[in-house]
Amino acid sequence: MKSLCIILFLFMGPVLMAQSIKVKEQNADFSVAQNVNALVVEIPYVSQDFIDSKVKKLFKGLGKHKQSKKEHSALMVELKDMGKMPFNAYAITQVTNKEEVSVSFGFDLGGAYLNSKEHPDQFKIIQKIIEEFASASVKTWVEQIFDKESKTLSSLEKDQKDLVKRKENLEKEIKDFEKKIADNKEDIKKNLDDQSIKKTEIDTQKKNVENVEKRLKELR
């Protein structure tokens, strides 16, 4: 199923991406707080471990990163567009029943978690960051699959070339053998002719020897 989705993505690209990746606002549970406002995005095609590694990289770039199983945190985050006050960010990954990876992001701004009603400007900033993060993750995942499939294709093409070369070598060997057989047949024919000539020479020589031997006996 996931392979089919990847193929569709390769054909439909940006259109499918725009339809698949949407940031939703809903409540979520984190280890530090339960039932708080969160920004949730479902990322298609990818594996949970892959997204975990990407969340880890994202949070390391934001602040002091900590990880406990599938939950990540970045403490004392400072972003210019978010204002002067540092904040804490949290993220939890899980696999949905649609086999997509869902990431719940929570942002503790100090007394309140980021939400669209109380923090509309900041919400849009974070929403854009999450959307770009999800889109970039899918792109990287598909690029890795493309590289893997390309290497497999190259290997298969090399195997095919080796098979063609082997066939050509075998055909050449057959031609060489056929030529050798034809040459050997000619040599055998010539050999038989030579044997016949040689036998005649031997018979003649035997008579010469017999005549000389006869003369020799007459002289004794």
What does this structure look like?
With 220 residues, the chain is an alpha+beta fold. It has a domain at 2-153. Helices cover 59% and strands 20% of the residues. The protein contains four helices and six strands, in the order ααββαββββα. The chain has helices spanning 2-12, 14-20, 48-60, 120-218, and strands spanning 23-28, 36-43, 64-68, 71-77, 87-95, 101-108. A six-stranded antiparallel β-sheet has the order 1-2-6-5-4-3, with helices on one face. It is rod-shaped, with a radius of gyration of 43 Å. The mean pLDDT is 89.
What value does the average pLDDT take? 89
Low-confidence stretches: none
Quick one: overall form?
A: rod-shaped
Q: How are helices and strands ordered from N to C?
A: HHEEHEEEEH
Computed over alpha carbons, the radius of gyration is 43 Å
Strand order of the largest sheet: 1-2-6-5-4-3
Ends distance: 113 Å
Largest sheet: 6 strands, antiparallel
Helix residue percentage: 55-70%
Q: Would you count the extended β strands for me?
A: 6
Task: Please count the helical segments.
Answer: 4
Strand content: 15-25%
Structural class: alpha+beta
